[in-house]
Amino acid sequence: MPSKRLVSGMRCTGSLHLGHYEGTLKNWVRLQDEYECYFFCAVWHAFTDRLKIEKLPEYIDEMVEDYLSVGIDPNKAVIFRQSAMPQHAELSTILSMFTPLGWLERCPTFKDEVRDEESHERVSLGKLQYPVLMTADVAVYKAEAVPVGRDQLPHLELSREILRRFNSNYTEIFPEPKEILSECPLLLGIDNRKMSKSYNNSIELRETEESLKAKIHTMITDPSRVRRNDTGNPDVCTVFSYHKIYSPQRIDEIAAGCRSASIGCRDCKGILFQSINSILEVFRAKRAEIAKTPGLVKDVLAAGEKKASIVAESTLCEVRKAMGFTV
Ligand code: TRP
Ligand code: SF4
Question: Which of 115, 221, 233, 303 is exposed most, by the fewest CB atoms within 10 A?
Answer without folding.
Answer: 115
